[in-house]
């Protein structure tokens, strides 16, 4: 199934679909006679309700043939997971990206955090904050955890992945590299565009074959498959959950391939007016306009 969260007036609504046909989950609950599904706002609500909720949504959707489709055109997208408890990110997980930055290959995954204040939806603006002059993009595959994961082995890890989505790990390189920690350079407001769709894990035959393509103003900057990861998804989940418990709805961003702005000579920093698009085949395209910081 494919999920999206949209904002209709002041109301957040969860939409579910397959093969271009979509219904709101509230309408699905009413038509399918599954009242327990009513009120779900995002995919986080679904996974926190347990595996039976996903099964009920899939079954109800398959049983409804003649309901009018929900039109996603012109809708305002929220992130498919609106308020995750945690966003765990992986740095330097593609060899070519490491080479363009002149860094050594890490012996174990490099982890850092982004905070929920970073999350914005598809087509929502990313602020070029006044405190940075080195704004950069990082197109990435993100996974959403489906059930509590603690001390999970790599052999069992994929059972804990509920779905996949697209994230752009926006980074202020001057803050990231100038501070002792990466937190400020990675977690300014709007620095985590996510979506527009989440695709459940049963729809993705092999995550390694997913291709990430990032463009800036139509120019291709990143183009790689997830098979190029140094540490694959099972290894990442095993490493993270050795001591960090992941909860349903938590997000893991799996790292970015080569082609970031910092890797060019001279660097190609983002500026207001730019538009970044991150596409992952089989999942969708996440579009983010860059805007000036006009806040008081």
Summarize the structure.
By secondary structure, this protein is of the alpha+beta class.
Largest sheet: 10 strands, mixed
Could you name the ranges where pLDDT drops below 50 across 5 or more consecutive residues?
none
**How far apart are the termini?**
42 Å
Order of helices and strands: EEEHHHEEHEEEEEEEHHEEEEHEEE
SSE-based structural type: alpha+beta
Q: Say which CATH homologous superfamily of the largest domain is assigned.
A: Fumarylacetoacetase-like, C-terminal domain
* Number of E-type strands: 19
Q: With helices defined by DSSP (H or I, 4 residues minimum), what is the helix count? A: 7
CATH topology of the largest domain: Fumarylacetoacetate hydrolase, domain 2
Q: Beta-sheet strand percentage?
A: 25-35%
Portion of residues in helices? 10-25%
| Chain-averaged pLDDT | 96
Give the assembly state of these chains. Answer: single chain
CATH architecture of the largest domain: Alpha-Beta Complex
How many individual domains?
2
